[in-house]
Amino acid sequence: MKIFSAAQIYEADKITTERQGISSIELMERAATQVFNWMHQRMQGAQVKIHVFCGIGNNGGDGLVLARHLYQHGYNVDTYVVNCSDKRSKNFLVNYDRIKAETKSWPTLIKKGDELPEIGKDDIIVDAIFGIGINRCPDDWVITIMQGLNNAGAYIVSVDIPSGLFSDKLPEKPEAVIRAGYTLSFQTPKLIFFLPQTGHYTEQWEILDIGLDRQYLVETQTAAELIGKHEVLPIYQPREKFDHKGTYGHSLIIGGSHGKIGAVQLASRAALTAGAGLVTAYVPGCGYHSMQTALPEAMVLTDSSEEEITQIKFKIDPTVIGLGMGMGTGKKAKIALEVFLKDNRKPLVIDADALNIMAADKTLLELLPENTVLTPHPGELERLVGKWEDDFDKLERTKAFAAKYKLIVTIKGANTITVHPEKIYINVTGNPGMATAGSGDVLTGIITGLISQGYDPLQATVFGVYLHGTAGDLALEGRGYQAMIAGDIINHIGKAYVALFKQPEQEQQQEE
Ligand SMILES: NC(=O)C1=CN([C@@H]2O[C@H](COP(=O)(O)OP(=O)(O)OC[C@H]3O[C@@H](n4cnc5c(N)ncnc54)[C@H](O)[C@@H]3O)[C@@H](O)[C@H]2O)[C@@H](O)CC1
Ligand SMILES: [K+]
């Protein structure tokens, strides 16, 4: 699903009114009616007190339309205008008059120095103070009002975006943002829902389709895309009857050192489970027996050293190479990596220690083939791209880095983000149970296994991250976050594939 920027949404708005021959007031009516429908469907006329807090722009206008509909349908609603500026928008003013005409009284104005009305813990607050048009930090008295709402203990539903959040930068003050239970976002999810520093301002979000111009939505390219089942299904490559193991390629997994052979084992097993035809592990001598025993399906090559990787030499012809897990960052490992990279022409997936070696000597990055996949966790990423100021800066730095070296970089986290020079892909699957030793090795293995089957590196990364997260979600069943280990994720890759083709009803039945 495309994630449109604020500028694109304003553009879509304008085009929609032109092409559909409607006024912006009608569009506002349509948008806010969707919010009303959403609430009405869930509340079914319940007489819970609803406090609608409106700003003075179009987000506030939405709030006024919503309040009018709630009133018309007999809900117990109070409407307030947080009078944060005298520059009221045209559409706000039209709806300000309309609600007066309907309810025979003006909404309660909240000005500087005014107290918040009493709000019960079981009440509902609708937050329509600021939308995507916020352009500066709210005044202190407005922040006090926002804090009052946050601390009221009532459930907060935000319209479009939690008020106080900017679409492209961090709020100056964390207290100047509404903490929503639910955000009903118009037409497109907002990028900020998925960034660690801003995502926590709403517990849940949902998109409301407000019928913006289809052609614009289809034709417009976005800088970010949300990746769920619908996006990965077209990537999935079905198998043919006469395919054989050669069709699915040969993954070579290189890494490990004394005490860290498990990392290679996990990555190799994940590559096989993801569907690689053949997997060979390249490990120091000390890893030979444990690899052969733990994973008889894989072949094993050993380094001349017992303890660590000192030279990467092999006579096989792999389709793709995944490397770096558990290999250490010592001098010998570094030289081995450098010599190997100078000769290598195969697609690569690089993780862990190999990333740290490269971060310490960036000239090695120039040796990477185009579209090499890097899978850093935040610490490794920082070593590669430098310290960032905030999540937005992190994305910009990573994009610039990916463009400079022509790489694909996956930033592992709650919403793993795959950064390609032209676009970022935000994954929706996964859970905190996956923050466990070896989880990253599994991801590297899955991506490597997918490339070996013929997925191009970007597809393999986007699909691999999705599968990895889904496997983690499926592995959670009957187990808390704490008990999940990396092997559980591998054990559920098969189910993650099967889940791709389950209809929603089947999924529900299974949950029951
Ligand atoms: N296509 C869409 O998505 C639609 C969006 N609509 C709504 O329109 C909103 C955007 O409306 P606007 O652009 O009017 O802006 P907002 O309503 O988001 O709020 C900002 C308004 O207050 C002013 N302002 C900005 N920062 C301020 C601050 N710190 N203190 C005081 N005043 C401040 C601005 O001048 C602007 O008028 C969306 O978020 C959405 O709720 C809907 O009405 C219609 C369709
Ligand atoms: K809002």
Automatic annotation (TrEMBL):
<feature type="binding site">
    <location>
        <position position="440"/>
    </location>
    <ligand>
        <name>AMP</name>
    </ligand>
</feature>
<feature type="binding site">
    <location>
        <position position="59"/>
    </location>
    <ligand>
        <name>K(+)</name>
    </ligand>
</feature>
<feature type="binding site">
    <location>
        <position position="163"/>
    </location>
    <ligand>
        <name>K(+)</name>
    </ligand>
</feature>
<comment type="similarity">
    <text>Belongs to the NnrE/AIBP family.</text>
</comment>
<comment type="function">
    <text>Catalyzes the dehydration of the S-form of NAD(P)HX at the expense of ADP, which is converted to AMP. Together with NAD(P)HX epimerase, which catalyzes the epimerization of the S- and R-forms, the enzyme allows the repair of both epimers of NAD(P)HX, a damaged form of NAD(P)H that is a result of enzymatic or heat-dependent hydration.</text>
</comment>
<keyword id="KW-0547">Nucleotide-binding</keyword>
<dbReference type="GO" id="GO:0110051">
    <property type="term" value="P:metabolite repair"/>
</dbReference>
<dbReference type="GO" id="GO:0052855">
    <property type="term" value="F:ADP-dependent NAD(P)H-hydrate dehydratase activity"/>
</dbReference>
<comment type="subunit">
    <text>Homotetramer.</text>
</comment>
<dbReference type="InterPro" id="IPR000631">
    <property type="entry name" value="CARKD"/>
</dbReference>
<comment type="function">
    <text>Bifunctional enzyme that catalyzes the epimerization of the S- and R-forms of NAD(P)HX and the dehydration of the S-form of NAD(P)HX at the expense of ADP, which is converted to AMP. This allows the repair of both epimers of NAD(P)HX, a damaged form of NAD(P)H that is a result of enzymatic or heat-dependent hydration.</text>
</comment>
<keyword id="KW-0521">NADP</keyword>
<dbReference type="InterPro" id="IPR036652">
    <property type="entry name" value="YjeF_N_dom_sf"/>
</dbReference>
<feature type="binding site">
    <location>
        <position position="377"/>
    </location>
    <ligand>
        <name>(6S)-NADPHX</name>
    </ligand>
</feature>
<keyword id="KW-0479">Metal-binding</keyword>
<dbReference type="Pfam" id="PF03853">
    <property type="entry name" value="YjeF_N"/>
</dbReference>
<dbReference type="GO" id="GO:0052856">
    <property type="term" value="F:NAD(P)HX epimerase activity"/>
</dbReference>
<protein>
    <recommendedName>
        <fullName>Bifunctional NAD(P)H-hydrate repair enzyme</fullName>
        <ecNumber>4.2.1.136</ecNumber>
        <ecNumber>5.1.99.6</ecNumber>
    </recommendedName>
</protein>
<dbReference type="InterPro" id="IPR029056">
    <property type="entry name" value="Ribokinase-like"/>
</dbReference>
<feature type="binding site">
    <location>
        <position position="441"/>
    </location>
    <ligand>
        <name>(6S)-NADPHX</name>
    </ligand>
</feature>
<dbReference type="InterPro" id="IPR004443">
    <property type="entry name" value="YjeF_N_dom"/>
</dbReference>
<dbReference type="InterPro" id="IPR030677">
    <property type="entry name" value="Nnr"/>
</dbReference>
<feature type="domain" description="YjeF N-terminal">
    <location>
        <begin position="9"/>
        <end position="218"/>
    </location>
</feature>
<dbReference type="GO" id="GO:0046496">
    <property type="term" value="P:nicotinamide nucleotide metabolic process"/>
</dbReference>
<feature type="binding site">
    <location>
        <begin position="58"/>
        <end position="62"/>
    </location>
    <ligand>
        <name>(6S)-NADPHX</name>
    </ligand>
</feature>
<feature type="domain" description="YjeF C-terminal">
    <location>
        <begin position="228"/>
        <end position="500"/>
    </location>
</feature>
<dbReference type="GO" id="GO:0046872">
    <property type="term" value="F:metal ion binding"/>
</dbReference>
<keyword id="KW-0511">Multifunctional enzyme</keyword>
<feature type="binding site">
    <location>
        <position position="263"/>
    </location>
    <ligand>
        <name>(6S)-NADPHX</name>
    </ligand>
</feature>
<comment type="similarity">
    <text>In the N-terminal section; belongs to the NnrE/AIBP family.</text>
</comment>
<keyword id="KW-0630">Potassium</keyword>
<feature type="binding site">
    <location>
        <begin position="412"/>
        <end position="416"/>
    </location>
    <ligand>
        <name>AMP</name>
    </ligand>
</feature>
<feature type="binding site">
    <location>
        <begin position="131"/>
        <end position="137"/>
    </location>
    <ligand>
        <name>(6S)-NADPHX</name>
    </ligand>
</feature>
<dbReference type="InterPro" id="IPR017953">
    <property type="entry name" value="Carbohydrate_kinase_pred_CS"/>
</dbReference>
<keyword id="KW-0456">Lyase</keyword>
<keyword id="KW-0520">NAD</keyword>
<keyword id="KW-0067">ATP-binding</keyword>
<feature type="binding site">
    <location>
        <position position="160"/>
    </location>
    <ligand>
        <name>(6S)-NADPHX</name>
    </ligand>
</feature>
<dbReference type="Pfam" id="PF01256">
    <property type="entry name" value="Carb_kinase"/>
</dbReference>
<feature type="binding site">
    <location>
        <position position="324"/>
    </location>
    <ligand>
        <name>(6S)-NADPHX</name>
    </ligand>
</feature>
<feature type="binding site">
    <location>
        <position position="127"/>
    </location>
    <ligand>
        <name>K(+)</name>
    </ligand>
</feature>
<dbReference type="GO" id="GO:0005524">
    <property type="term" value="F:ATP binding"/>
</dbReference>
